[in-house]
Structure formats: structure tokens, C-alpha cells
Amino acid sequence: MDRIAGIINLDHEQDLLDELTYFRCGAAVPFAGRYRMIDFAISNMTNSRIESIAVFARRKYRSLLDHLEQGKAWDLDRKRGGLFVLPPDWNDPTDISRGDLQHFHNNMDFINRAYADYILVSGSQHVCNINFQEVLEEHKASGANVTVIYKKVNELLPEHALAQKLTIDEDNRVSDIHNDHKSKDVFMDMYILHKQYLLELIEDGIAHGCSHLFAEGIKAKLPDVHMHAYEYKGVHALVNSVESYFRNSRALLDPEKHDDLFKEDFPIYTKVKNEAPSKYLQDSNVKNTLVANGCIIQGDVEDSILFRGVKIGKGAVIKNSIIMQRCEIADHAVLDNVIIDKDCRISEGRTLIGAPEKPFVLAKRKTM
């Protein structure tokens, strides 16, 4: 059986989530009540029997390191393979590589030593539940140099304006990659290729002064490169802005969408924290809300997401909001269309109101 090694490339991802990425990279942003954005990429890989995974991190990765630790939550704390978080650490004065090609070039040891025939490269901004073994089988059958994964979206949303799109012919061969705002074939920043071909692309890209492996080493060579398109048909969300984060988080309040993403036979894993079950006190009233463990609720909560350890005071009213870990909402506070980051405190009687298309965001460790 052909084996795959995984690379989660965060090097070119921009931190566009405003206050949510003041102190962390986008991959470490909390999502869906108990997870981080990167959990989906890692879980999809481990569920697909990928046992060696590297994370290319360049900026604001302290929170990411704290979350990932040795990879135990994903069964990656192992003697052979495992999880490798690879921040920039280059001391070779003769190194002329740049951009994300620096990461690929200076971590060639990971690629060479990985017990794998193929390499899967992914980002962290596309939330999905996908089996990469199925992608590999289609890649081998197509005879392509590279297979890219895309989603044919039903509706173009603002976040898709920043995403690359594909032009695909009747044989599922990619003829162009572009930013046409009318195209609904959204490239999911995931692709698979043979390990030896990747090594050749890295060396060729550096020799020609390139800085981005995919954009300059692969995309720029179309149509000479045989690029196959694999259509992912499951639940999907692109999170690259505060607005897309807010909308796609609250979409999981729909039980059908939630169950499509969090499948029992293909689970999403995250760092385990042992906390007591949530407490709903006598005056509490909770409707259509995701509630993580460790919460204490006295007030009214509706159409919202509460992360671990949130405290909601008596008479407080929370609607259409996302409250992250260990926040305290005092008595009689009112929150509507609000995102509150970790360890914040909202004082008694305070009112914070945003709009569905522009939620109010409070950065972590703030008091209002």
C-alpha cells in the first residue's frame, strides 16, 4: 500500500481575523466550541492513515505549540513518524531560498526521511471532513503529476473572493488557476503529489529564484504540468475573515451541518481538557446553543456557541454570539452578535451589540 506524509503549510496564510489573530496565527484560532482551526487538517490526515505530519509555522506560533504539544490528541506521539512543528530556524549563510520554499528547502530532511511515497500539502483555512486515501487513489488512476482538491460551492460568499478558483475540462484536468469572482470551483489549498516530484520542484524553484512552491513552481507551469482536479462533495467552510468565521461557526448550530462535519466514523480530534460537565442553574434558559464542558449558566443563551469554562451570570442575555474559553459574563449583561475571545470579563449590566454581517469582536484578556 502506498503511504502518504502530510505537510500543513501555514507559511503563506495571512492572519486576517483581526482581533482573533492579534496573539495567535489563524491555525490556532478556536472554532466550534472546543476545537482549533488546525484540528480539522490534522484529524483528516490521521483518519486517512497519515502517520507523519509536519507543520510549517513562521509567525505567532506560541499558542499553536501549546495546543499541539507532542501530538498525543491525534495519536501522533509515536516512535516512528509523528507530528513535527517546524518553525523557521535557518543558519546557512549560503541559503538563497525564500518564501515558503525556504520551509520546504530547509526541512528536506522531513520529506526525505518520511516513510511515504506521496506528500499531501494542506493549509488550515478550509474546514472539511475528507478521506485523503480516496484522493490518492484517484490521483494514481489519473496519471497526473499533481492532484488538487476543490469544492464546487452552491453560493459565492465574500470569503470566496480571496480564494483561488479552477478551470477544469471534461476530463477533470485543470487548465487554469485564477481569481475569477464568478467561478464556483474553489481550490481548497490542498494537493497531493509524488515525493520525488516534490523534491524536484523544490530544487527547480530555488534555482529559478521562486518564493512560493505552488504559485510559482506548479501553477505557473500549466498546462505543461498534468494537474488533476478532485471534487470534494462534503460539508465545507472557508474561514479567512472575521465575518466568515462568525457565519460558518454559527452555521454549525444546524444539527444536519454539524453532524456532516463531526462524523462518528471519521471524528475530529482536539487537545483533551478534563473539566466537569456544564451546569445549568435554576434561572438558566438555553436554546439552540453549542455548550462545551465546564460552563456555568444562570442567564438566557440563544443561537450561540459557548467554549469551555464560560460563566454566564444571572439575568444575562446572550444571543447570536460566540464566547470563548473562561470568559465571565456578569449579571444582567446583554450580548448580541458578539465574538469574545478567551479570558475576557464583561461587567454587570454592560451591553454589547454588533451586526450579523459585522459582529463586535473583543480581543482576549479584556475587561469591559
From TrEMBL:
The keyword Cell division does not apply. Residues 20-153 form the Nucleotidyl transferase domain. One of its GO terms (molecular function) is glucose-1-phosphate adenylyltransferase activity. It holds the Pfam family NTP_transferase. Its EC number is 2.7.7.27. It is an enzyme of class 2 (transferase). Residues 283-351 form the Glucose-1-phosphate adenylyltransferase/Bifunctional protein GlmU-like C-terminal hexapeptide domain. The gene is glgD. The keyword Transferase applies. PANTHER family: GLUCOSE-1-PHOSPHATE ADENYLYLTRANSFERASE-RELATED, GLYCOGEN BIOSYNTHESIS PROTEIN GLGD. This is Glucose-1-phosphate adenylyltransferase subunit GlgD. Belongs to the bacterial/plant glucose-1-phosphate adenylyltransferase family. Keywords: Glycogen biosynthesis, Nucleotidyltransferase, Transferase.
